[in-house]
Amino acid sequence: MVMTLSEADIAEALTYDRLIPAMERALADFSAGKVIQPVRSMLTIEEGQRFLGVMPAVAETGMGAKLVCFFPKNAGTGMPTHLGMIMLFDPETGQPLAFLDGRLITEMRTAAVSAAVTKHLAPRNCRVLALLASGVQAAAHLEALRHVCHFDEVRVWSRTPDHAQRFASRHGAKAMALEMAVRGADVIVTATNSLEPFLRGEWLKHGAHVNAVGSPRPTWRELDDDTMHNILVVDSREAVQKESGDVILSQAPIFAEVGEVFAGTKVADRSATTVFKSVGIAVEDIVTARLIYDIMAPKG
Asked: Model pTM?
């Protein structure tokens, strides 16, 4: 029987302790050519407001596809901006295994990948985290990054100051102005739907690490050219060169895919300033879905 797993089921099963190493293995396999995966097909329903993405992938452990709704127009309405469903198949037999709600999977796998990258690239003994966002991904990144770093100070900035204040109250952070939040931070997360760059490279501490997970459209940006022209790693070279305005418009050279860093075939200088640009790729969803299925499926 095909399993149907709700967000509540997924929340019960999925932990960052399991997910972070699973994302390292998945992306190492992707960069080693062990994954069959096209770049996401994104259908524009209403420019800037409503998009439907189709994301298939075949990995050694799982096969399937995610249908994801990216609806920036939902921001501030109580409805998530990202909603989706994942269909999982057995890659050996083609047997359908499960339908899984995709919202929490998308949230957690994105933050887990950033945490894995941070473990490899951030300065050792990093102490200050700056979250340049105050929504779902900011909270997920705070939780995931605490599995790989010990932060003495968490700063938060939002384009809506009230949102930053509420986030700070809930999570023991400090709400700050943008430049003040960035200066001196060891790890910075950007997770917005900004159309124009707001993070300036001149504010970055030498040796800081940036996880940029927002603005996943070819004309949208979070980071200025100075930020982008540091050591740049990405989840997929092919994907970011089609989907990421930060990469396309800055023409920044790509040092490596993160899978190459995880596998040890590319080694970045941890004392240098590093940037991880993520657009999110299908193998992350499929491997996460298989991880959940293996936990939840009846044994015997």
From this structure: 0.96
